[in-house]
Each structure stands twice: as structure tokens, then as C-alpha cells.
Automatic annotation (TrEMBL), chain A:
Main subcellular location: membrane
Name this polypeptide is given: Cytochrome c biogenesis protein ResB
Signal peptide, first to last residue: none
Cellular component, GO annotation: membrane
Top-rank taxon: Bacteria
Organism: Anoxybacteroides rupiense
TrEMBL record, chain B:
Cytochrome c assembly protein domain boundaries: 71-169, 261-389
Gene, per the UniProt record: ccsB
CC terms in the record's Gene Ontology section: membrane
Membrane topology value: Multi-pass membrane protein
One of the GO biological process terms: cytochrome complex assembly
Annotated compartments: Membrane
Highest taxon of the lineage: Bacteria
Principal localisation: membrane
Residues spanning the membrane: 6-27, 39-64, 76-95, 100-118, 138-160, 172-198, 257-275, 302-325, 337-354, 366-388
Name of protein: C-type cytochrome biogenesis protein CcsB
Keywords of this entry: Cytochrome c-type biogenesis, Membrane, Transmembrane, Transmembrane helix
Stored InterPro entries: Cyt_c_assembly (IPR002541), Cyt_c_biogenesis_CcsA (IPR017562), Cyt_c_biogenesis_CcsA/CcmC (IPR045062)
Species name: Anoxybacteroides rupiense
Amino acid sequence: MEQVKCECGHVNPYGTVLCESCGKPLEHTAKPLLDMRYEGSARRSQTYNKTIIDKIWNFFSSVKVGVWLIVITLIASAIGTIFPQKMYLPPNVTPAEYYEDQYGWAGKLYYELGFDNLYGSWWYILLLASIGVSLVICSLDRVVPLYRALKKQGVTRHESFLRRQRLFSATSMEDESFLETVKQRLAKRRYHVREENGNILAEKGRFSRWGPYVNHIGLIIFLIGAMLRFVPGMYVDKVLWIREGETKEIPGTNGQYFLKNEKFVFETYEKGKDNPAFNEAIDRVGSGMVAKTYQTTAVLYKRVGPTVPGEEPKLKKVKEYRIRVNDPLKYDHYALYQVDFKLNELNKMSFELIDKQTETVFGNLSIDLNNPKPSYDLGKGYRVELLSYFPDFYFDDDGNPATKSRVPNNPAFVFKMYTPDKPKGEVSFVAIRQTIEPFGDNKYKMAFAGVETRNVSALTVRRDFTLWILGVGGAIFMIGVIQGMYWNHRRIWLKLVNGEVLLAAHTNKNWFGLKNEVRAIIEGTGLMMPIDQAEEEKKEAQGGKGNGATK
Amino acid sequence: MAQLSSTLLYIAFVLYLIGTFFFGGTIRDKKDRPQTNRWATIGIVITIVGFLSQVGYFITRWIAAGHAPVSNLFEFTTFFGMMLVGAFIIIYFIYKTSILGVFTLPVALLVIAYASMFPREITPLIPALQSDWLHIHVTTAAAGEAILAISFAAGLIYLIRVVDQSKSSKRTFWLEFVLFCLITTLGFVAVSSAFGLADYEAKFKWVDKNKETQEVVYQMPALVGPHQWTLEKQSADRLKPLVEMPAIINAKKLNTVIWSLFGGAVLYLLLRLLLRKRVAAALQPFVKNVNLDLTDEIGYRAVAIGFPVFTLGALIFAMIWAQIAWTRFWGWDPKEVWALITWLFYAAFLHLRLSRGWHGEKSAWLAVIGFAIIMFNLVAVNLVIAGLHSYAGS
């Protein structure tokens, strides 16, 4: 493609609007003020529009399209909060029924449109991906030519460039003594001053121009990090329910790590025991109603030696830790979080073998509800066999005893009691608060003697290799956004032409600050304060068009 | 200590109120006088003293509770009000515009008054909140939102100045609507305080959506009653609800909303009767000397300063804490989503500022919408869309 040579001698790439070196407009523009965005550099999107690639490039490089993508994502995200998302429904409900049940026809429609899993839907992910594409293309389209333009910018600027800046003044000056003062003041305000043939370019904060591109890089890294979660093995998310005293393999660690739950503690705030400042609040909801601590005292073990199926693993103690909410146990990229608990789960139940009539006790037995023995010998010829065990007992549809789960919520047993006088044994069905005898003529009975309970703790197991990428992305984003927002790129030009001093100034934002600075720099030098030509233009446009307020 | 803390907050409130009047006093001055005159100086000094007093409230309450007072709706909203004043003070020293005080301080007053309608006692921290990230995340997020809210004040000034009041239009309607919303907040405060002073209480039994009987205590006369309500014996003489709500609607909150709207409407109509013109039209003469370009720039600058702070507090710190407390950095909880929405909105705002035609009035409208989103996240997401974050407000 042909290049464009400016009258100053600088050769510009095709599509350049303002000469990179002297700033002279290369094409005729009608507007009195120059459009300084991206320094009038040759942006691909503004130059080519022929092939399909050009069209895609131009589509995504448009800020307008970017804003639309943001706004659509915003609206979609808001819709997702109207009703709870699927992941927040109570367990054991069917979403199809739940939404209609709870929210009527609106809920049904919500579910049918797939809004119950909006943030995981293909179109929402596609929106985020488009934003990502837009970020890349927008940035590339601008940053490369902008970098070129700022690097090649000359000190000596064309007169028409200066006159068509927003802040501009021309002053007839007798001598040039003011120059030294101005230069000193500029340097004091940390301007980088360049001189060429008596012309001055003072510049500061150019690095803030890169802020938007830096923060976009941060966002892209963040989005890539988020996308990596779809890669298997990048993260582990498992739940471990573990009873007090138990040692269990930690799921998701490939049998490498084991955990023992020494003790689980649940505490509440109580009046009198805690900070008296809380009394009023505790009174309102009741003492013992506000949770204070969930804590599992745990011991972490590591397996030593190879995994042999069927063999008890050899364990080495690694670490003891009190896991609390907000204080997970961390080791080898794994983290164990306190997430749930269950208090007083039945653990052991004990019974006495008695004579129903005399109530004489012939011995007692204790059953481990999670690991019952098949038979218990009570000595002297007394023996009890456990024929069946139902940890979570109920009667099924056919009226037979069955169990809902393996958790001993409501244990029931079928015992066979062998005694010296009943060598064939008597059968008895025992559940909480009921005893059923198949024939109704037993002599002996298993009398309930007590229970032992223990607490169960639920821990979430996490390992996430994407976190550091997200962290890096977030940090770069913050650096970029601060760089772009808290600094601005200011330039002041001075040019001497035929005894006249042309003074122009430009900033990418915060014109108020720039005006104050220019005022301070030229104070007492005899230079005229530049006029804000954008404001003048606006005033002319309004031209006394009276609206109530401005009169 | 807790007592001292309440007193300091009260002092701060009164000082902000006085400060507003001093800033108001600057309006009468001629345009050609220097911007900083004696009225404005007194105004900013009073505001700073008020701010320090509120900082005192914050510190003493922190000492009394043993944790930073940002753990319930009252504390958070009060803190937001304090940050709003703080942000105003900073912007004031950059731009020296006293008119900004006339609009920001009343908004801060409304925010603090609104906050004090919720339970004010010091609450103990549940395990999920027991973390240093509570202070870090909540304070930064509130500071970010407050700085962004300054752009709302600037936008409002811009709109009041620029919207043509000589004929009614969409613009006059929506501007009145914005002012009506502010007045309704005042209505809510007035109605709640009135019934609070009268110790009004009506106890109901009702049937929830799972067909279980529940109890609820209204602190305002029940215009709308809960599903299948019956008044308890001790409340037999209380107003019987005029309309019964289905079980999925929280009738008590709806009742409060209706009362607030009613209070707001009464106040608004009274104002209209007194002024005999639109409220915005009545305010217009006060802003006639405002420099529009400067106001626009303040609005933009507030977003430029606030956006990074908001990102850091409401998204980045939030994610770090969520990873520690809830095992995942992001969970699409409604509050998280609305923080994202706020962020996306201001991101769109900043991008629109790059294009021509979005400065000035359009930008001012956007600032108003942005504030509406922040308020939605503060009020509606806490009280209506319950999620992990919702403070137990009633």
C-alpha cells in the first residue's frame, strides 16, 4: 500500500490522518478542531474494509460494539438474579417442579427459557468470549499505531496543528527571555522538555496512555484463567463428611492424603459469656441462636509407600490443624474448608439382655452403628446374633423393613437371642421405642440401655491451579486501570513564528487540571492564557438559543 | 463506649445538616466573586468536623464491638454515608465547588437517616464474617461506591441546570422522578420514625408457601396482610389488612414500601403545592451560575477515581475473601452479580466517554442510572433478593 509523505518530509503509513511527526492534517477536514483521538494515527479498522477478515476486525474493533456487548451482558446478568439459580435450590427438588411451585407461571417460563442456569448457558459464555475477542482486537487496532505516533512525534509542529488544538493562544513577544522561565517551570512540574529550533515540546504522563491496553491484557489473562476451569485436572472440588474419631481418605487426592477428625466444635454466642456490647442483639434473637464457631480439629496424614489394594495404608502424620470457617487447612496446593456439620449423630447403641418377667439382666452389649458385629457373646451360654441391621429404618411400600441410607439416623435391628434355656434362640425386632416379636411369646428381650453420639463435620476439598492466573490477571488489570485513570498524558507546545509565540496544550483527560497548570506556568511571562476553543465552539453553537437556565 | 459512639454519629448528622445550609448560603453570591467565600469556608469546616465526628463514631464502635462496624445493614449504610462525605471533601479540595455540597450532603443525610431505620444494636459476627477481609473488602467497596455516587450529585446538578423547564417533556418527567425517589426515602424515614415513636406493633399469624404457620410483627399499620393472616389476641385492636397477599410475597416488606411511597407522595405533593412548579424547576435558580463543563468534568473525574477503588473493593478483594470463606472466588450470588453489573455499567460509561456526543447531559443521565444501580444493590438485593450476602434486615 502506498505511503503518504508529508510536506515536513516524514513518511506516514497509509491511512494516517495527522502527520506523525509535525501533526499537519493529511486530509482536509471541515471541523475547526482536530480530532486528537489516537493521535490521528492509521488504524487498521479505519483504513481497510474489503475482505471478510477486515469486516470481522472492524466489527470487533468498534468501541460501540464493545459497549453493546457490555450492556447485553449486564442485562443478562441482571435477569439471572430474578429467581435463584439452579445451584442455589434446596437439595432433593426437581427444578422443573420447583420453579413453577414457588413462582407460578413466571417461574415456569424462567425455567423453560433456561434462565435457571443462565451463567452456565452457551450464549452467556459466548457473550463473555465475544467481550474477550473485542478486548483483543480493540486494543491491537489502537495500541500499535498509537505507539508509533507517540514515538515519532516531532518537537516542531505544523502551525495548523497548533492552531486547531483545543487550548491555544498566540502572543506577540518582543524578546525571548520568557522561554527560560517557562522551561524551568515545566521541568519543575516534571515535564519532559524537548527543544528543536527554539520550539518546545513538554510532555508528561505518557505512560498513562498505555493504561487501557494494560488493563485489557489483565482482563484477557483473567478470562483465560476462568476458561481453564473447563480443562480437566485444573481443579478439584469435593466434599468430605467425616465423623469424630474417623480417619478417611481425602477425596480428590488420589489416595495420597488422609484426614482424621479429632473433634468438631459448634459454639454460639451466649449472654453473659460474650462481649456485653452484644447483649441487645442476642436478646433480639435469643441466647444461643447466633453461631460463633464451627471448628474441626483435624490431623492430616500422608500415605507412605505404594498403594496396595486391600491393604491398610501406612500413614505418616503431616500436620495438625484447627479448621474453621475463614481459616482452611492448606497443604500441597490442597485446601480443606469447614462448610457444614451435623451434631449428635448416633454412634453406639447399647442393650441389655433381660428376662421380661423378672427383669434380671444377663449381660449387655454395645453396637457400633457404623460397623456392627454379627454376633455378641455375653458369656455363661448367653449370646446374641444380629440377623439384620437397618441404619435408617422405615417400612417400604410392601410393609417390609428397609433402610433409606447407610447413615444411622433411625437404627433398627433383628436380634436372635440364644440362652441356656432357649438353645434354638428367640427372634426379636428392635427399633427406637418399639419391639416387635414375630410370635409374641418371647421370654427374653433386648432392653435399650443408652446411646453414644458424635458430631460429623463436612469439609470441602479444593485444589485450584487456575487461581494464580486469575491473580496475575487481576493484578495487571488493577495496575492498568490505575495507570490510565490516575495519571493523564499532558503536552504543551510552544512555537515561535514571525515574532509570535504559538502556545497549544493537549491532555487525554482532566482539562480543568491542565488549564490550571498552564496558567501557573505562564504566569507573569506575558504569554496569553490559551482559550478553550471547544467551549467557545459550544457557546457559538448554542448562540443564545435560550433555554430557561442559561439565560 | 457504645453510648459515646451513638452520640458522635448524632453530632455528625446535625453538623452535616448545618453544613448544607452554609453551602446553600454561597448560592446567593454573585458569579464574579471568588468561588471560595466565607460561607463556603465555614461550610467545609463544619463538614470536616462532622466527618471527624463520624470517624469517631466508627472508631469507638469498633472498640466496643471488637470488630469494624460494617457487619450489618445499619453499619454498612452509615459507613457508606461517611465515605460519601469523605469523597465530597476530597473533590471539594480539587474543584472548590460549594454547589456540590448542597447536593451531596443531603444525599449523605438521607443515606444515614435511612440506615438508622434498621436495627442499630452491635451484632456479634457469625463465623463467615470473622475475617480481616471483612474490614478490607467492605470498606473499600463502600469507598468506591461513595466516590462513584459523587458523579450522581454532579449529574443531578447538571440536569437541574440544563433540563428545559418551560415545557413538560420526558426529561422533566424523569428528573422529577429522580427527585421523587429521593423524597420517598425521606418519606420512609418519616413514616418509620413516626410509627416507631408511637411504638406501633401488630402481631400476625400467617401461612407460608410451605403451608406452615408463621408469626410476623408489623411495625406499621398493615395495609397489606400476609397470606391467610389472623391477628393475634394482643393486637386485636390493630388495623385489619385491606388486602391479603399470596404466600410468595413478603407482605411486611411490601407494606413498608407502600407506606414509604405514601409518605413520599404526601411530601412531594405538599412541596408542589407550596412551590407551584416542578421541584426541579424550583431548584433551577440555585444552580444557574454553575459551570456546566466543570460539572461534567467533576462527574467524569469521580467515576475515573471511583472505578478502580470499586473494582478493587467490590470485585478483587471480594473474590479473595470468597475464596477463603466460601471456598470459591465467585459463585453467582445475587450480590456478586450486582457488583459485576455495577462494574460493567461504569465500564460502559467510561467507554462511552471516548465517543463524541456522550459528554454533558447524556453522561449526567448515565451517572444517575449508575447511582440507581448502586442503590438497588444496597437496598433491593439485601432486602428483596435474599442471598448469602443479605444482612438480616427486617
